[in-house]
Design a protein that fits this description.
There is one protein chain. By secondary structure, this protein is α/β, with parallel strands linked by helices. It is built from 14 helices and 16 strands. It folds into 2 domains: 3-165 and 336-411, 3-Layer(aba) Sandwich (Rossmann fold); 169-333, Rossmann fold. It is 39% helix and 17% strand. The chain has a 7-stranded mixed beta sheet, sandwiched between helices. It has a 6-stranded parallel beta sheet with strand order 1-3-2-4-5-6, with helices on both faces. The longest helix has 20 residues, at 358-377. 49% of the residues are buried. It comes from Tistlia consotensis USBA 355. Residues 1-21 form the signal peptide. Residues 60-422 form the Leucine-binding protein domain. This is Amino acid/amide ABC transporter substrate-binding protein, HAAT family.
């Protein structure tokens, strides 16, 4: 595939090639380079030449900074495997993927960046953790090398460092927007007292306000608590008591999808505010903690027939469909179909199923291959932020995405619903940011 062809449909070809290359192996990369982390916080580096596109050996060097040892080792190795897959699918012979072990620490990430700079890397993929991303941000910016971090922490983004992870704000924005379009105006939240819970709640309150609604009740709880009954009872004092709201909501959705219209009675019911209560409840928890909460909610009259339960990407767990109170709950996540194609190929190549974050390694490497080829074809001296911030965006394993000027990511997410027999797509993910620009994916 030529650079021009890749440009005409940014990255879509990468997924098409998954099927074509299923029986082949990724080309090898330069092995992980051991780097010595500094014992103390690093001092400002001496001035160095600015990052360029092509190194003296004629190659475009891409630096992958991931934990090959230490905390996050399993995910780091999966990111490496996925990056190799994308390099095989989209990379030209002029690309070299150099792997640097961050050892899962900020100090290790900083040392890895110094080694990547010495190799005259044109682009950095990684690191995985937000603390590691923060540790390299200033030095990478001074050197002029863009960074595609695997972190979902938007607070580290900016000045040439981009986050690829799916942030809590991204998920909450999508599910609140969808719920608001169905007429829900009054919301509540039951959140853990933790940095994750704080981020989810702040994003939730902002999204509800932006959609013209109000958060009428918020309750926090201590993660790991063995008895959450007091918190659920507190929440229940504000819950809507009108029967059948969830059923009417589903009927309204089915009618809207068929182009039908709903009466004034249904629209009023959808608001969930007829009794001064709330029509939707955010539950950011996952796993056993979520199941514990969900079993208590109907007991204290926070009934899923009256209140629409909303979750996060950690609801993408088939085990949750066994909890009756969660059936019918909605959450925002990537469309699962492309992931199924990717994970099937990954398993055939490496003999094991990938962790969910592995898709970020594929998408990052594929973006790097496309923008570096385009930059070289245009005779540009380096990979520019303008190329990465293409408003058309890219289409990858996790759907369409594009980098914003502030370093944050915009993604097209689907709305998924927990049902008794599995997880289904309730509202499809968008296929483009600009009509007609990004091709529909084929499976």
């Amino acid at each position: 595939m030529t650079p021009d062809m890749r440009r005409s449909a940014p990255f879509v070809g990468g997924l098409v090639l998954l099927a074509l290359a299923a029986c082949q192996s990724p080309q090898p990369t330069n092995e992980a380079k051991p780097v010595q982390a500094p014992a103390a916080a690093p001092t400002a580096p001496a001035p160095m030449p600015r990052a360029g596109l092509v190194a003296p050996d004629g190659k475009i060097h891409l630096a992958l900074l991931v934990p090959i040892s230490g905390p996050g080792e399993k995910v780091g190795r999966a990111l490496l495997n996925a990056s190799q897959m994308a390099l095989f699918d989209l990379g030209g012979t002029d690309l070299a993927l150099d792997v640097y072990d961050t050892q899962g620490t900020p100090q290790g990430a900083y040392a890895a960046l110094q080694a990547a700079k010495a190799a005259q890397s044109a682009l950095v993929l990684g690191p995985l953790f937000s603390g590691s991303a923060q540790s390299i941000k200033a030095d990478a910016a001074a050197y002029g090398v863009p960074v595609l971090s695997f972190s979902s922490d938007e607070t580290v983004a900016g000045n040439g460092l981009y986050t690829l992870g799916i942030s809590p704000a991204m998920q909450v924005d999508r599910v609140v927007d969808f719920t608001a379009r169905l007429g829900v105006h009054a919301y509540a939240a039951l959140v853990p007292r933790s940095p994750y819970g704080d981020a989810a709640l702040a994003a939730f309150q902002a999204a509800v306000t932006r959609n013209g609604g109000s958060v009428t009740k918020t309750v926090g709880y201590t993660p790991g608590s063995t008895d959450l009954s007091p918190e659920v009872r507190d929440l229940a004092t504000a819950a809507a008591k009108d029967g059948g709201l969830a059923q009417q909501r589903r009927q309204y959705l089915a009618s809207a999808q068929q182009g039908g219209q709903q009466g004034a009675e249904a629209s009023a019911a959808l608001s969930g505010g007829g009794t001064g209560g709330f029509g939707a409840l955010l539950l950011p928890a996952g796993g056993s903690e979520l199941i514990n909460l969900a079993s208590l909610l109907p007991y204290y009259d926070v009934d899923p027939e009256n209140v629409q339960f909303l979750g996060m990407q950690n609801w993408n767990d088939p085990a949750l469909t066994k909890e009756p109170a969660l059936v019918g709950g909605w959450f925002a996540a990537p469309d699962p179909r492309a992931w199924q194609v990717f994970s099937g190929r990954y398993a055939s190549l490496y003999g094991q199923n990938p962790p969910r974050l592995a898709s970020l390694g594929y998408d990052a490497m594929a973006v790097a291959a496309v923008v570096s080829a385009d930059a070289r074809s245009a005779g540009e001296p380096a990979i520019s932020r303008q190329r990465l911030e293409n408003p058309v965006g890219f289409a990858g394993v996790d759907g369409i995405f594009r980098f914003e000027a502030d370093g944050t990511l915009q993604r097209g997410l689907a709305i998924l619903e927990l049902e008794k027999d599995g997880i289904v797509v309730r509202d499809p993910a968008p296929q483009s940011f600009q009509a007609g620009q990004v091709s529909q994916l084929n499976y």
